[in-house]
């Protein structure tokens, strides 16, 4: 079974669109597919495939209200099965290690040709671990500055998570990473390719294992919402950044042009490959499906088991990296170094940051005035 986690690092780039339509395209090709809604903070994948809200889903299973077997439901599409997410149950975006590991084991026990996991946006620990269930996950991004930046940020956090899964607690490399992590922005601002040299000196055995897993790791990229054919060059530049700074080679699965047909398909509660199979968007998805069918299923080594690592210390570093201004700017520097971002786009990004800083200053000044007023009123009393 080939597991295909689909992530984005940022919402609104068409991740669920690709997941749903890809599942149906593979099913039409005679492959048994199980599609899972793991966007647990905002589960709505059932709407994309035209299904009614399921009574049993990931949420009801994790809360003990249903068995895992009850989750796998047939759909109206040949060879395609669906597991709903249940966004209405609170706390699902942050799974504890035991529940997450149980879910991973259940996924691995499923019988299918393809297991497609539609992950949530962001770099939460659960999302990173689910993405690392396979070396062949898909990252969906768009040509916009923020989408590219977040997609790259996501892959870099995946690499750090892989490090923590490889360098076990107590190893020299783990201790070194923990030292660096005291300043999370410094850790995240380091290039993986440069960091490897130091890790090799401190822990040659485990670093060799990590490098072997890096060679196995081949994430795939889909560039969505493309308006101009020139935007397709972005994929090449992103790949160059990943090679130079992360030490990984990503495969370019294809581009999806923006197509108004998708909006009509959603209104009709039909996936676009069903609503209009001859549309530009549907044909692009079929090409992606064909590449996946032709690809060899690969996996990490037998000793790579993320369910054995219950350490959640990396989570804080990942979340801080996503929010930290200086870390974010370091990613901009890396992408700018390989031309993935143009001078104009850098200017736009700086303007956005300045606007955000101005807004925060104004909010801060407003709060200060309110506090001063409250204190003065207190003295009058």
The radius of gyration over CA amounts to: 22 Å
Low confidence ranges: 310-326
User: Multimeric state of these chains?
Assistant: single chain
Largest sheet: 8 strands, mixed
> How much helix, percentage-wise, in residues?
40-55%
Strand order of the largest sheet: 3-4-2-5-1-6-7-8
Terminal residue distance: 72 Å
Summarize the structure in words.
- The chain has 381 residues and is α/β, with parallel strands linked by helices.
- The chain is 54% helix and 11% strand.
- The chain has an eight-stranded mixed beta sheet, with helices on both faces.
- The chain is globular, with a radius of gyration of 22 Å.
- About 4% of the residues have low confidence.
What's the arrangement of secondary structure elements?
Blueprint lengths: L1 E6 L7 H14 L4 E6 L6 H4 L9 H5 L10 E2 L5 E4 L13 H12 L5 E6 L5 H7 L6 E4 L3 H22 L5 H10 L2 H6 L2 H11 L1 H13 L3 E7 L6 H14 L4 E7 L3 H7 L4 H4 L4 H15 L18 H11 L1 H13 L5 H38 L1
Parallel strand pairs: 1-5, 1-6, 2-4, 2-5, 6-7, 7-8
Antiparallel strand pairs: 3-4
Helix pairs in contact: 1-14, 5-6, 6-10, 6-11, 6-15, 9-10
